[in-house]
Amino acid sequence: MKEIVIRRSFKKQLNLTFMATLMVLLSFFVFLMAPEIAHSNTFISLIMAVGFVGVIFFSICLIYIIYGLLKSKDILKIDKNGFLEKSSFISGSYILWADVKSIVGYTSMGQKYIGVELKDSEKFLKSLPIIKRVLLKLNLKLGYPTILINLNSSKVDYSETLSSMAKFFDMWKLKDK
């Protein structure tokens, strides 16, 4: 089979940029308006904290989205030896089919993902930088697969991509026997 390359959709990425900007502004508004919204000091502090955390979180998201908009266009490359997944901040590693245990469709909070379980997750985690390792361990504790491939910022069909990955993996398993 020929290598498959899935790219980001510029239009979808631009839409995400707009939404993240809106969330930063909304969080900043909540932070500034806390004294007007709440009438006790406890609630003012709580609302300001929520606004502050929102500004920080959504600003980080916005920076990552803009970086993705300007830099990396490919979010998934699939070939006969494995795949390179770059759909999120905690991804970016080339995974060999030999290291894959299973590939499954996965849905969480209305979002569809391609879930990849590895034969040795610990070995994979040790090869990652500390921040990615910590974030992936949090995902694992929440019951998610080792690798979640998010195709929401692409134009491709989720089912078609899942099927293609499964075919590549099945071909590798047959070749390996």
Automatic annotation (TrEMBL):
InterPro entries, from UniProt? STM3941-like (IPR048136)
Q: Where are the transmembrane segments?
A: 16-34, 46-70
Which keywords does this chain's UniProt record carry? Answer: Membrane, Transmembrane, Transmembrane helix
- Record's superkingdom? Bacteria
The UniProt record lists the keyword Membrane:
yes
Keyword Membrane attributed: yes
What is the designated name of this protein? PH domain-containing protein
